[in-house]
Q: What sequence folds into this?
């Protein structure tokens, strides 16, 4: 595993007492003013722009008290898109941790990721066995240190610029989990069959969970990390989506949806989900809809 880690530390030292030249202590009012000035300086320091590595003209502003957002990117054979995805994620004005989990790619993805570690705030997990998206996400979740954890695919069907809107309900404290719905936003999925199957799977999932989701199969799922800590996930492939949805519903977590865009790609362009995953999703909807 290659990684580049950074840590932001703010240390503010406040003197316990202040004395004048004669050795006499200054007044309580003066002490309070000095302490207030020090606090103001500390606040100003923490609000400065922290420059990123994508160029000298771009910086991200990290507001005081902003939660750390971990963006987990599972990837398998995405040599054509992985660098663009990383660039778009890095451009987000969030206090963030980026974790990429390579699911034993057989193209140049691993080489690209290893080279990308240089000069980037990036953690890369290189798996030695291809297990599937669900297994890659479990590894990424286990390594996450953020307050919020969000999933980002590596194929550019989902634009990372949508992430701030997806996580907004968690930042506002109105949800424990947020899904980005392709059916509430502007989707460019040209396949009627694909759209119909997604709606059907969501309908079946809702029937078991009691939720009213419009897009259970969406990639964009954001979690309060404390939710994931106690969630036993088992599915290795795309069965992750109905499994995690059923287990969240059973535990009564607040789940909301936000509209997102979607740019579908074809199987010729690298789409990987197939008929095997359709049957697996149906099984998982019933299996986890009944019990953990």
A:
């Amino acid at each position: 595993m290659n990684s580049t880690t950074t840590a932001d530390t703010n240390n503010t030292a406040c003197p316990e007492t202040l004395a004048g030249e004669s050795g006499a202590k200054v007044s309580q009012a003066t002490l309070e003013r000095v302490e207030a000035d020090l606090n103001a300086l500390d606040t100003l320091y923490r609000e400065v722009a922290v420059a990123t590595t994508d160029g000298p003209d771009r910086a991200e502003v990290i507001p005081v008290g902003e939660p750390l957002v971990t963006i987990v990117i599972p990837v398998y054979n995405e040599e054509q898109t992985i660098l663009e995805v990383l660039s778009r994620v890095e451009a987000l004005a969030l206090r963030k941790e980026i974790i990429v989990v390579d699911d034993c790619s057989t193209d140049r993805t691993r080489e690209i990721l290893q080279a990308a570690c240089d000069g980037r705030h990036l953690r890369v997990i290189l798996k030695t066995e291809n297990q599937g998206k669900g297994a890659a996400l479990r590894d990424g979740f286990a390594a996450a240190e953020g307050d919020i954890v969000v999933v980002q695919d590596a194929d550019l069907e989902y634009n990372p610029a949508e992430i701030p809107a997806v996580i907004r309900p968690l930042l506002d404290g109105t949800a424990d989990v947020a899904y980005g719905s392709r059916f509430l936003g502007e989707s460019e999925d040209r396949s009627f069959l694909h759209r119909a199957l997604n709606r059907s799977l969501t309908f079946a999932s809702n029937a078991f969970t009691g939720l009213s989701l419009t897009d259970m199969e969406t990639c964009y799922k954001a979690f309060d990390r404390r939710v994931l800590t106690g969630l036993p996930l088992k599915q290795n492939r795309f069965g992750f989506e109905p499994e995690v949805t059923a287990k969240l519903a059973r535990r009564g977590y607040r789940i909301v949806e936000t509209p997102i865009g979607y740019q579908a790609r074809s199987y010729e362009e690298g789409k990987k989900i197939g008929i095997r995953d359709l049957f697996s999703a149906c099984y998982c909807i019933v299996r986890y809809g009944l019990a953990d």
